[in-house]
Amino acid sequence: MPIIEVNMLEGRSPDDKERLIQALTDAAITSIGAPRETVRIILREMPSGHFAVGGQSLRRKRLQRPPGRNSVTSGLHRIRIVGGGEFSCGEDERILLAMERYGSSDIGVGCRGGGCGICRVRVVGGDYTTGKMSAAKISETERAAGFALACRVFPVSDLLIEVG
């Protein structure tokens, strides 16, 4: 009876975890010939503040690093759309691109560069950083109220988003 243990940072969706469980089970069946019913999978999730590299928590390292490398593997966070779907997004990934990667279409897609305003959203809950956005599309007052362009938003925690 194979027992496969996985330690990972929290933030992946239930669907992501189910896919991982299936892939690990299939790998055990294929590689060692284990009968499906004997394969055991244990998933352990931990907050990024409970994992450290070089004496510094991963959460602190990420908060100090500027966004923009578009890595889908660092610090996945759950992004929920009010009245819509949800998907996971890495801290170095723009939420608009993560939404597209998941095959969702809750947020309008335009230039993807912060200039057209089609992907305008309001962050209702959670922490995030933004890249450069057109001041003509999002004023400083609107920014202070949580409005941003999804193509320029990088999550630092799980987010709740309103579209429009």
CATH 4th-level superfamily of the largest domain? Beta-grasp domain
Strand order of the largest sheet: 6-5-11-7-9
- Compressed to H and E, one letter per element, the order equals EHEEEHEEHEEHEEE
Rounded to the nearest angstrom, the radius of gyration is: 18 Å
What is the helical fraction, as a range of percent? 10-25%
CATH class of the largest domain: Alpha Beta
Tell me about this structure.
By secondary structure, this protein is an alpha+beta fold. The chain has 2 domains: 3-46, Macrophage Migration Inhibitory Factor, CATH 3.30.429.10; 66-163, Roll (Ubiquitin-like (UB roll)), CATH 3.10.20. It has 4 helices and 11 strands; from the N terminus they run E-H-E-E-E-H-E-E-H-E-E-H-E-E-E. The chain has helices at residues 14-32, 58-64, 95-101, 140-144; strands at residues 3-9, 40-46, 52-53, 56-57, 77-81, 86-89, 120-125, 128-130, 147-149, 153-155, 159-163. The strands form 4 sheets. The protein has a 5-stranded mixed β-sheet with strand order 6-5-11-7-9. Strand 1, helix 1 (14-32) and strand 2 (40-46) form a beta-alpha-beta unit. The chain is elongated, with a radius of gyration of 18 Å. Mean pLDDT is 85; it is low at 66-73.
